[in-house]
Request: fold
Amino acid sequence: MVTLTRSGDRTIEEKEALLGYALIAPALLLITAVILYPVLYNVYLSFTVVPLRPDEAPQWVGLEHYYSLFGSSAFWSALRTTIVFTFFSTTLATLGGLGTALLFNRSFRGRRYLRGMVLLPYVAPLISVAFVWRFMLDPLYGIVPYIGSDLLGLYAGNIDLLSNGDTAIWSVILIDAWRYFPFAFLMLIARVQAIPGDMYEAAKIDGASKFAQFKDITLPELKYILATVFLLRWIWNFNKFADIWLLTRRVDTLPIYAYKVAFANYQHGQAAAISMVLFLALIVFVLAYVAWALDW
Amino acid sequence: MSTKQSTYRHVVDSFKTALGVGENTIETSLAERVVFYVALGLTLLVTLFPFYYMTVASVLPESSLYSLPPTLIPQDITLDHYRTVFGPETFPFVTYFKNSFIIATTTAGASVLVATFGAYSFARLDYRGRGLMSRGVLMVYMFSGILLVVPMFQVIVWLGFVDSLASLFITYLVQTLPVSLYMLGNYFRSIPEEIEEAAIMDGYSRLEVIFKITLPLSAPAIVAVFFFTFMIAWNEYLFASIFLQSQSVFTLPIGIEALSSSFRQVWGQIMAASLLTSIPLIVMFTYLEKFMVEGLTFGAVEG
Reply:
């Protein structure tokens, strides 16, 4: 074989392995330098007080940041807000995606184009989406307060839905679900369409109702993809920063709390500790979820 | 069933899927159809209304923008807000747009380039530590921006990269790499290995195989990855808000946010700027929709 004689003292396998390392090296180096090193550095920073001047070295304070964190009510309230926000926005986006996927699971004129349009909230830039919602919720001239309060009388009109402590989180949850349900829809629609039609035919002959068909055929067929979509959205919503920050300053989830501590109060060490807790809480959730979802 | 029959059936099925006919076209009653169209209409209304309203608000004169009831169908149309956005007096929108465009294209280009080789390595070449490395890359999915932002800020300050687009280029490149590696790797694995083996038998080297066979076959996936990394860089707010300080390097998210907090009642301009910011993504998406949808099924993109 030509390749064997040309390869000299190296076998084909060795050459392939060398090429493999060479091709992955740039990606790996970048990820190590810009992600893994900062993550480890973050662990270190969380045990220190970081001085404002960059040429001074951080001061080691041990677990002090963690102690003060667990003793502060702001932290516990931020953790609670994070869980409420993540749970409801993830659930709503997943259910919305499921509903839309089932709706689109039949042929109708223009389905392909309408599917593209449904993806728009997910594709459009965050900044545009955040500002149009801020405008629509504007307490003076917004269309949502006009419909909800002036026309329907659902609430007293002088409430600013995005700045009021009680309503801000629910507004943000609904907007987040609106923006991300297309993601769930897209992940689910392919799987919904792959369910063999004759399963439904057979169920119909047996006299199963629409609901029974959904419960006994659709849901079991979709459960793994549903579990995956829920997990991915959970991870991303748990870490969500910009979507909330651009809408309101009144919803303090852990990422926002960390950002404020780091860049408004300049306590970088304390902020590093908050982000560590955020990460550990997420890991615990993911491990528990995966263990549960596997034998689900 | 014979092989020929099953091939035939497969072809018919894929045509049915492509044309959107075939599944669940079981006879439906009038009532069911009414419920279906009402539900479809509501879904589209909720999904699209904000975009419609953004467009309307961007062409409304100030007087109808700030009056009740809100205007849904504009009587007079004005392009004043667009003129303000493009005029340099209020805020340098064109500069922000240019910065965002430069950072998003270079990030997406570099990410696709580095990830193509890396993903090929993961998908096709065999070596010690490969499995560990590819799983490790997926772990990076779990590291949020907020976990990186404090240490990255320290590193960027130390490197002297504060207030430059270079700081964003490095950050975005690395943040998009795991997604790109994952999506391209999955796609490469879906290409039949026999094609590449046949080419190697014919005397092609591995690199020739990559450039002459794998890459041309992967054009749709590469387009999708380019779009998604472009989208991530176009949207990024957290790192930009910390690394950038002067207006001349602001990207769109930071620039528009600054406009909204420094003036009152500039909704017309903000809606015009928001619409213009959406255009590149919507145009790309419209042309590439088929690839996008395929691309998403090969790997979930953070959002």
Summary: Chain B touches chain A through 103 residues (CB under 8 Å). Confidence is low (pLDDT under 50) at residues 20-25 of chain B.
